[in-house]
Amino acid sequence: MQFPSTLSVFRLNTGASIPALGLGVYQMPANNLTHRAIDQALKYGYRHIDTAAIYHNEEVVGKALVTSLIPRDHVFLTTKLWNSDHGYDKAIKACHASLARLGTDYVDLYLIHWPVQGKRKETWRALETLFEEGKCRAIGVSNYMHRHLEELLGHCKVPPAVNQIELHPYIYASRSATVDLCRSEGIIPVSYSPLTKGIKLKDPALIRMASRYRKTTAQLLIRWALQQGFAVIPKSSIISRIKENMEVFDYEINAADMAVLNAMDEYLVTGWDPTDAL
């Protein structure tokens, strides 16, 4: 897979590369707004699009990729299995349905969206089958905390390539055990909601730090994630912000500021909190 030379990548345990920065399309409508956002993102150099069955916009994502005229194997495409589709047979069927909506023969990454109790093992076995058949070039999980990962690693034949969880400085320390396990097992953490859904973008401490680098607070949070070794998928449908979020590869946060950011934990969870998921 080829990516623009300006776009950093991380190496997955499959040997494939995942672009470090992607466009998330969570809660983006299945209409021209999302189509245009994806089109512009690809023009700016994004090569990583993250969707999910539950977002109900896979068809728009697929159409945007086709109309972009960028070769399919030059774009890293992620989608996810929803909770109601757990279990071996249902997961196989759900993946094929996602592929049909996306208009592609494969996805680069297929994730279990949530650790559903009692069905995770059979669901993972289905993902391993899909991986072996080439329907998914890599498989992984989302919203898996330390104990969910330990459980999976205890029975899987194919280890997860990524674990997509909410990660930003305001939750980082609380999730350090999960991040450390990912790192020790060669699993790439993928940060969703890296911009705290806007909640902390006006934090005075963050503003002061960002101003020293002549960057926005959003750019600072994205850069922090990249330097942590996280792939990061900020969501936006605003074209100027999609462009702005890409402008994070021309500077580096120094060690002292990284330490300050690492210590800002407030246990801020802006979406789902899987910590107590059984």
Task: Give descriptors for this structure.
single chain; 38% helix; globular; 10 helices; 10 strands; TIM Barrel; 8-stranded parallel sheet; 278 residues; alpha/beta
Your description of this structure?
The chain has 278 residues and is of the alpha/beta class. It has a single domain, classed as Alpha-Beta Barrel (TIM Barrel). The chain has helices at 32-44, 58-68, 88-102, 120-132, 146-153, 176-184, 204-212, 217-227, 239-246, 255-262; strands at 9-11, 17-19, 23-24, 48-50, 76-81, 109-112, 139-142, 162-166, 188-192, 231-232. The strands form two sheets. An eight-stranded parallel β-sheet has the order 3-4-5-6-7-8-9-10. A two-stranded antiparallel ribbon has the order 1-2. Helix 5 packs parallel to helix 6. The radius of gyration is 18 Å and the shape is globular. The model has no long low-confidence stretch (mean pLDDT 96).
Biggest sheet, spatial arrangement of strands: 3-4-5-6-7-8-9-10
Can you identify the CATH superfamily? Answer: NADP-dependent oxidoreductase domain
What's the number of extended β-strand segments?
10
Number of helices: 10
Poorly predicted ranges: none
CATH fold descriptor: TIM Barrel
What would you call the quaternary organization? single chain
Residues in helices, as a percent range: 25-40%
Element order: H for helix, E for strand: EEEHEHEHEHEHEHEHHEHH
Q: How many independent structural domains?
A: 1
Shape: globular
- Terminal Cα separation, in Å? 37 Å
Structural class from helices and strands?
alpha/beta
Name the beta content range: 5-15%
* CATH C-level: Alpha Beta
Please outline the major beta sheet: 8 strands, parallel
Under the CATH scheme, the architecture is Alpha-Beta Barrel
